[in-house]
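Q: For a teaching session next week I want to show students how multiple molecules come together into a single three-dimensional assembly. I've collected the sequence lines for a complex. Could you give me the predicted structure tokens for the whole thing so I can convert them for display?
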Amino acid sequence: MSANGKWEAVIGLEVHCQVRTATKMFCGCANQYGDSPNTHVCPVCLGLPGSLPVPNEEAIRKTILTGLMLGCRIAPVARFDRKNYFYPDMPKNYQISQYDDPLCAGGSVGLDLFQFPKELQETEEAQARRKIRLVRIHLEEDVAKSFHFEERSGIDFNRAGTPLMEIVTEADLRTPGEAFAFLGSLRQILWAGGVSDADMEKGQLRCDVNVSVRPAGESKFGTKVELKNLNSISGVRRALVHEIARQIAVVEKGGSLVQETRRWDDNAGATFTMRTKEQAHDYRYFPDPDLLPVRTDRGLQDTAKKSVPELPSEMQERLVRDFGVTAYQASVLTADRVLCGYYEKAAAATKNKAAVANWILNDFLSTQPDPATTPVKPEYFAELADLVVAGKINSAQGKKVFAELVANPTSPHDLVKKLGLEQISDTGALATMCDEAIAANPRSVEDYRAGKMNAINALKGFVMKKSQGKANPVQIDEILKQKLGG
Amino acid sequence: MSLAHETIASLRRRLAKKEIKSRDIVTDLLKEIDAREKTIHAYTHIDREAALRSADQADLSRPLGGIPIALKDNLNATGDPCTCSSKILEGYKSPYDATAVARLRQAGAVFLGRTNMDEFAMGSSTENSALGVTRNPWDSSRIPGGSSGGSAAAVAGRIALAALGSDTGGSIRQPAALCGCVGLKPTYGRISRFGLVAFASSLDQIGPLTRTVEDSALLLSSLCGHDPRDNTTDSRPAESFLAEPTNSVKGLKVGLPKEYFIPGMDGETEQAVRAAADWFRKNGAEIKEVSLPLTPSAIAVYYILATAEASANLARFDGVRYGRRAADPKDVLDLYQRTREEGFGPEVKRRIILGTFVLSAGYTDAYYRKAQKVRGLIRQDFEKAFQDCDLLLTPTSPEPAFQLGERTQDPLKMYLADVFTISVNLAGTCGISLPCGFTKSNLPIGLQLIGPRFGEEKMLQAAHAYEQSHDFWKRMPPS
Amino acid sequence: MSAPKLNVSDVATLARLALTKEETEKFTAQLGQVLGHMEALSKIPTDNVPEVHPPDHPVLRKDVPSPSLSVEAALSNAPAQANDLIVVPKIVE
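A: Of course. Below is the structure for the complete assembly, covering every listed component.
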């Protein structure tokens, strides 16, 4: 909703996501990013005369898996169609895609609260955790990559033929923040399934946006504008913020919008006309006669079902429910399955699962460890948490042990002994030190008895210093208060 | 007698007995080429040295060891040109072998040269070649047929032992009929299309043009079988054909589709084909009249579907990655438009326009989707006919070879000449053309036998039996 | 199917063919004839056309790499190349 609440934005996304496979969609060339130009090409992906496509089974399986993760209906028979248009990055000047019979239909993506920009996470918009419906997911081949110079362009066909999933949403999104959250939430799911690395910088995840505005409460759609050249998730948000404002400005003045495709220029911070509806392509779709229809109900769906992982939302719920971590902590863990595995191992060794989470996420994570290879065993954190909760060491001491643990990974029990940090909990010894504190700080005692409650801190400080930090702070607090009679 | 006049089967026997060497065959063929190729112009490229070298290295233990074979110029062979008789592929050299070519290589074959064709296989007379016309060896003022006109003329003219061609609407069978040799279109999915420059993907098939049915079966046996590089090949592995000729047509049920014997058809053709039917009957086959009621719509269906697929298949010829590029293009659009305008001949342009139109917004339902449905009915027609028959017997062409230049200004008339061959491609079944007579002016007449899908063995048996009971296959064109 | 409205010029644009005026006129006449011949298809009833069923046997490719062309072979037919890229006039969005 716009600031004055008069206008509402209606947003749909078309997300292209490269599928993680060893080979390309229709040939056996390596599906690899970043190598020297034209080193992964063959007659098929170069579009040489006489070449023919043969579909990659793994790409189909991973697309079905994606559909299962997102709650889609999987087509029992999937077909490929030719989408015809001329462009230098198109080896055949038609793209093999799916039109009438996509692999997946329907489904939805839930917006993860923690995938909203930080500053929006408290808002109603984020808290609503809306589900964004999908129209379809289909499989196609990616185009080549062009590099532009002053008067010429150069084309690298390594990327041509990479398997690409196109995920189309219904026009359910209402704000740039939601679009931002959608992409982050989708990415989490794709990572969970091992379907794609979805790195926008590497072109593995690309997004086109359809956006229109209408008076708040209106059900008819306004004129739709397509936005292209969005190169990052935050870029999508910036482009939408700008374009929605642009559209509202036009219609508020009584003007009308053109149905068109506009190009986002991140540097200029604005969108520019690319082509109008009249100039839009006539793709002349027809079923690709080189490819037989694919039956998914003869084993492909079953194989895919076996790989459906615990979804991020399911995992987050489970972590909060069974481990007592906060929702935010659950989102951090879900985003990194290896880290989560590490945590779960630690948590398995103790009742203090939430405390362990704090140690790992607040302290350990800031040392930028690799949870897969670190010599710091997860069980050590269970020990450490147990020590502090049981009162054997106080939290300040705990931090000391932690620092030592990272430097010299070994059992915290041993470290406590090594550092001589056993907390003094012996009531008698503590009482003696409290007496000494009271004797040494008459002014503070007076102040405390006069009603200044904070004066006790000086006495506590004295005891902590005397005990070299080993005194149990909770106990000395009790003992002092008792002795001071208040 | 020149080795160029013998059959592959007989030459293989002589090679095995060490009576001759492969080099001898190539040498004799080259002599014939020197004598007659100038007139016939069947070839677009001949590499004499490479052929002789291959001959010397040929592995005679293989099924086609030492046998020189010509390739239609739309089949990729590593290091060779692949012009498709088009200017747009001038200078192109293939970096890979078509599966069919690789299989012939594996079978020990020697490649002698590449044959002329209608540009991108679009045509029925080889007059649409950008590399000059090919002439019928029986009468050099006449067409050899098309689009595999070069292959047929070379085989018939004794300047090739055998050649590969491609058949989309009759392009192997019709030139075989007009030139008086044997031309086989296998069942769709029988031979891999990987490496065949595509015209119409759901219709194209590679096939052999040979002197005899036995030779045709030899080549088919080496070519056929599932190919993982072509998704449309059948799962059947390679098999051997005509291994044991029965030389009998007793008990065979042969159907004559009434729609293929129309009033006004060429009298001599009708006579020769009916005589063939009589031979079958006299030798124990049962002749039945059948009906393929959708025959009159086949041409329309074909020209909608084939041109639609072709318009997409030929989009890749754009001057970007290979082939001819227009000089000094001012931008990408100019590069595309001028490259294609200059590179394609008129028939190719016509078909691209037609194909693009029938797929374009607003017309795709009326034309493309409708044609697909009618194609399904045509397929059904054939399936019904084969419930009562083993084979169908028809003329291959409604008339013998016409004059060069006679139809070039009348595309529709040219298209209508495909009427007897086209339905076989639409139905995806197999068909073979073999000589069954000559006109008074010594022009060949072709008989077509049509089999059900994957019914090549029965079809080849019947064709062989008929062929060997007649002398037509032995007749040679005037020197 | 009403009388086909074939605009050869528009279709040529879609197909990236820069036809001459003569070609456009000639093709309009010739293809008009061909399309006329196709009118008859609309009268054929096609409501009960049998569907061709896809085969049950697997027709897919295992995700195992096979050799690519060398860069030299890949670019061997390129009309223009530089730094292992295929070169075209500047592509403008």
